[in-house]
Amino acid sequence: MTSRKPARERILEVACDLFYRKGIRSVGVDTIVEKSGVGKATLYRHFPTKDDLIVAYLVELDRHDWKQFDEVIAKHEGSPKEQLLAFIDAITDTMMSPDYRGCAFSNALAEFPEESHFVKKMTVEYNDSMHLRLNRLTQQAGAQDENLTDQLMIVITGALSLAHALGSAGPAAQLKALATHLIDLHVS
Q1: Is the pLDDT confidence value at 187 over 50?
Q2: Buried b (16+ CB within 10 A) or exposed e, 170-187
Q3: How far apart are CA 173 and CA 153, in angstroms?
Q4: Do 18 and 35 touch, CB atoms closer than 8 A?
Q5: Quick count: other Cβ atoms within 10 Å of Cβ 27?
Q6: Is the dihedral of CA 119, 112, 44, 1 positive or negative?
Q7: How far apart are CA 27 and CA 138, in angstroms?
Q8: Which of 37, 30, 33 is closest to 5 using CA atoms?
Q9: Tens digit of pLDDT for each residue in 89-147?
């Protein structure tokens, strides 16, 4: 007999899927209750408000992305330039997925653009974390300033956005070539 996942895990798994595929505002708690197979009281016991569920969704995305980042760069320990290129490859692979619907943090921010909203704060923190991680790698690879980090951030976020808007075979397909060119310009 297969054991079922705990209720909280099922709720969050369903919410993550639906929020990403359909948008946060368009998914109601009744749909999450139905798809996760839990009662409404159970959902509210784990997530007292929809905002609590949105926070958990973004925290889960953050955790997943940085776990993937750490796994990708660990394969090239001791070679920061190769780590940067492997990270770009991982992003490219993500964009090529048939289920790719854009950067989840950017999508969430588009739904909650208010400066004081927690989604804005969490999106800024996520991007700051990416900048710090990329900057650490670019500095370890020999880049002399933060220009390479900033340029990679622009190229990466642009590719993520364009892959959703125009498809992964469009301009986003140039991510690897452009990132490699920038890395080669800044790292000897």
Answers
A1: yes
A2: ebbbebeebbeebbeebb
A3: 16
A4: yes
A5: 20
A6: negative
A7: 39
A8: 37
A9: 999 999 999 999 999 999 999 999 999 999 999 999 999 999 999 999 999 999 988 89
Q: Which residues lie closer than 8 Å to 13 by C-beta, 6 or more apart?
A: 5, 36
DSSP type of residue 171: G
Mean pLDDT of 30-44: 97
Distance CA 114, CA 122 (A): 12
Q: What is the pLDDT of residue 1?
A: 43
Q: Rounded distance, CA 95 to CA 172, Å?
A: 8
- Compute the average pLDDT of residues 33-60: 97
Whole-model pTM: value is 0.91
125 CB neighbour count, 10 Å cutoff = 13
- Alpha-carbon distance of 188 to 177, in angstroms, equals 17
Say if CB 58 and CB 108 are below 8 A apart. Answer: yes
Find the mean pLDDT for residues 24-48.
97
Q: Give the mean pLDDT of the chain.
A: 94
- Record the tokens describing residue 111, joined without a space: 């739904």
